[in-house]
Amino acid sequence: MHFSIRAYKAFGMAAYYGAIGLFWLIDRHYQTDGIFTTVGYCYGLAFLVGAFIVSTGEQRLADIQAELNGGAGDNTADKLWGMVDRVVFWGSILAAVYFFRYSRFWDALASLGFPAWRLWLVAEIRRLKIKSGELRPSGLWKVALACSAAFTFLMLALMLFSGYGPYKNLGLGEFQLYPALFITGIVSSLLCFLGTGANLD
After folding, report:
1. Residue 172, pLDDT score
2. Is position 189 within any domain?
3. Is the pLDDT at 62 greater than 60, yes or no?
4. Is the pTM of this model over 0.70?
5. Within 10 A of 16 (CB to CB), how many other CB atoms are there?
6. CB of 141 closer than 8 Å to CB of 160
């Protein structure tokens, strides 16, 4: 069954913010001082990245460009979607600024899930241009992808078998090391994957 980018986008955002919200509620209920919330960030990011990848895998360049422009169209549904898209996008940016102001670093990053979608669409346009031969990526992207993926799996193994690691504080609030590095590894792998233009042969 074929779904539109818009459908995947709605699912990805619901799963992303839903996972974060659910684990935040669990955290509040059991008073675990942020441990479950951190787990929610990890799950939410994994859901979001998964939705990113499957949403544009079989889409045409024109479809991606249309969604990047807010689903621009002449009918009422497209106009309404474009308006909601812009409101949520800028609302997410303002929320991130608010959280950064009050040194809530992880909450600020979590707020940027929706804006990250636009970056993904821009990157997918680049990928399609690479696929068509219009652009040619450096082979170093493949090496960086392999290293990032290995690092991510290492952090996941450490979380599964030795806990979440020591607490660190970089002046923006305390966090546990392994989940932070796991998220960093996912983001790095994603960026390197985009850098290859999905040209992994």
Report:
1. 56
2. yes
3. yes
4. no
5. 26
6. no
In sequence order, what are the residues at sequence separation of 6 or more whose Cβ sits closer than 8 angstroms to the Cβ of residue 195? Answer: 137, 138, 141, 144, 145
Domain-located, residue 146: yes
Give the chain as a DSSP string: ----HHHHHHHHHHHHHHHHHHHHHHHHHHT-TTHHHHHHHHHHHHHHHHHHHHHSTT--HHHHHHHHTTS--SSHHHHHHHHHHHHHHHHHHHHHHHHHHTT-HHHHHHHTHHHHHHHHHHHHHHHHHHHTTS----THHHHHHHHHHHHHHHHHHHHHHH-S--EEESSS-EEEHHHHHHHHHHHHHHHHHHHHTT---
Residue 176 structure tokens: 């546990």
Residue 190 domain-assigned? yes
Q: How many domains does the chain have?
A: 1
Residue 174, strand partner residues: 169
Query: How far is CA 120 from its chain centroid?
Result: 9
Is 113:95 a contact under the CB 8 Å cutoff?
no
- Rounded to whole angstroms, the Cα distance separating 52 from 25 reads 26
Q: Is 85 exposed, middle or buried (0-12, 13-18, 19+ CB in 10 A)?
A: buried
Q: Which domain holds residue 111?
A: 5-196
Query: Is 201 within a domain?
Result: no
